Amino acid sequence: MENRNKHIAAFLIIAVVVLLIGVALDIKNKAGLGNQSGYQLVLVQKDTGNWYYEIHYASELKIRQEFVPGLPGNVDFRTRKLAEKTGKLVLAKLQKGHQPIITSGELRKNGVID
Question: How many structural domains does the chain have?
């Protein structure tokens, strides 16, 4: 009987550890704006108060976009929301296996520029 109780206790401990690992991984996935493909969108605020985004793949920086793409000059993302919208457009293209090129028409359609 004592052996059986040890086996049950060991099984319960293993089950709890596996459950905790699963919860931790789920929380980690939800913390970033990532997906199952391995890409993750990270939003960063500059010292100036403006924003930019980075796209990481397998924890490695692949894209750092500090300015609104498709516009002449260096136009900052004035809000987190604008950087996020643009980053999500790029992320969606990467997930589909397309080149991460954003046109001014796409930016306009998504409310990033007027």
Answer: 2
